[in-house]
From TrEMBL:
A Pfam family hit: SBP_bac_5
InterPro entries: SBP_5, SBP_5_dom
Record GO biological process: peptide transport
Solute-binding protein family domain span: 44-127
Single Gene Ontology MF annotation: peptide transmembrane transporter activity
Coiled coil regions in record: none
Name of the protein this chain belongs to: Solute-binding protein family 5 domain-containing protein
PANTHER family: PERIPLASMIC BINDING COMPONENT OF ABC TRANSPORTER
Length: 420
């Protein structure tokens, strides 16, 4: 007999059903069969498998024989090609447009993808859940969307045997904690939680979750003069007294503490004040206040709605952003390097060459070392800087296999385990 597992989530269905941010990607992972997926620390075929690698720019993929829509119709290579084309036409898919030159449907189950430059990790790049093909009102994944209300969505398993999943939007993590402790929630949302959730007297229980590839970024809008942007970004950061839930670091690849740069003296900071835009998800407010203090009040904490931030941060100021990986690899944190390599983002020739070479490297170690070496130059070009790593804090009574992307598989959950 199937039961219902209630999972807290921090956005409404109107947001996560649009596939524009992390919670949308997590839902995509359940409803739409991913092209490739994470399995522990490795990448495995799912809807697609690599059939042949003709050369460094041409890959042939085969579709899984058992891939079907809810109607029973097979998922086809044409479905995959159409989805990739559609995403490449959207602003959020600009990195896909810079990656893929063309898709050729060889037959109903075979697809040839040609890239714009030599790519060593195309299969990993295709593991982003939003790239999975879809049809209106039909699912190809493990779950189908049953019904949606303002603050709830229900996912029913296509196999008819697994437990039903109910996504419950709460008004705050504090409400989520109360519901979890009362037994009406089985999993409490763990990304962006109040600092007090890290207090020793909080009963939990919490998942022993490894660090996710999710970072706090301070970015300068295009309306900020270049010199002012450079001085602010170079001069302020989070120290060891950062809000609980954020690990201060200036790198995506190592736990480097913040060290003020050459413009560290407050007397050298530019005159004037700029808004520091942030959304109300914790611990953004606490982080914005600390940055404002570090800037000698040059930055003025200014809350904006989540929808405003998703549409594009306001231009006339700085913004506090959360950047999550776009696919399970080092380069999932630096997809803009493709746009630099292609010339879509102006950059020095030396940086273009490095950005291009990143995508050609077969060795995971070499790729990571090169990405770390290029990180500062890339971020300077993009007028941003890492200030910390977001630490997850999910409430659960049973273990969950949580990959570094955070896109965990709901199929591993059972009501019995969650209630233990």
């Amino acid at each position: 007999m199937t039961q219902t597992i209630a999972i807290e989530i921090d956005t409404r269905p109107s947001t996560y059903l649009s596939s524009r941010e992390f919670t949308g990607h997590l839902l995509d992972r359940q409803l739409h069969r991913p092209l490739f997926r994470e399995d522990a620390l490795s990448l495995v075929p799912d809807l697609l498998s690599v059939h042949d690698k003709i050369d460094d720019r041409a890959w042939v993929f085969r579709l899984a024989d058992d891939a079907t829509w809810g109607t029973g119709d097979p998922v086809t290579a044409d479905d995959v090609a159409k989805r990739l084309f559609r995403i490449a036409q959207q602003p959020r898919g600009s990195w896909i447009a810079a990656l893929i030159k063309r898709c050729d449907v060889l037959d109903g189950r075979t697809l040839k993808v040609t890239t714009r430059q030599r790519i060593a990790i195309l299969d990993r790049a295709l593991a982003n859940p939003t790239l999975a093909p879809r049809r209106r009102k039909h699912s190809s994944g493990a779950y189908a969307l049953s019904w949606v209300r303002e603050n709830r969505a229900t996912l029913v398993p296509r196999d008819g045997n697994s437990d039903v999943i109910e996504l419950v939007t709460t008004s705050s993590r504090a409400e989520g904690r109360r519901r979890f402790l009362s037994g009406t929630l089985d999993i409490g949302w763990g990304i962006g939680v109040p600092p007090k959730f890290w207090d020793q007297d909080d009963p939990g229980p919490f998942l022993a979750t490894p660090g996710l590839d999710m970072f706090v970024i301070l970015a300068a809008g295009p309306g900020v003069p270049q010199e002012a942007a450079n001085r602010i970004l170079d001069s302020i950061g989070l120290d060891r007294n950062a809000p609980a839930g954020i690990e201060p670091t200036v790198s995506r690849f190592s736990s480097y503490p913040f060290t003020p740069g050459k413009n560290a003296e407050k007397s050298t900071l530019p005159a004037g004040r700029w808004p520091l835009f942030y959304t109300e998800f914790p611990p953004n407010r606490e982080t914005a206040v600390q940055l404002a203090r570090a800037s000698d009040k040059r930055l003025v904490p200014t809350p904006v709605s989540y929808s405003t931030m998703l549409a594009g941060p306001p231009k006339a100021g700085f913004s506090l952003q959360i950047h999550a990986t776009q696919f399970p690899d080092t380069l999932g944190l630096q997809v803009e390097s493709l746009l630099i390599a292609r010339g879509s983002i102006p950059a020095p020739d030396a940086l273009k060459e490095v950005a291009s070479s990143l995508w050609e490297m077969e060795s995971d170690t070499a790729r990571r070392e090169c990405a770390r070496a290029a990180e500062i130059s890339l971020d300077q070009t993009l007028r941003r800087r890492v200030i910390g790593r977001l630490r997850p804090r999910f409430r659960s009574r049973s273990p969950i296999n949580m990959p570094r992307s955070g896109w965990f598989d709901f199929k591993q959950l059972t009501k019995g385990n969650c209630s233990t």
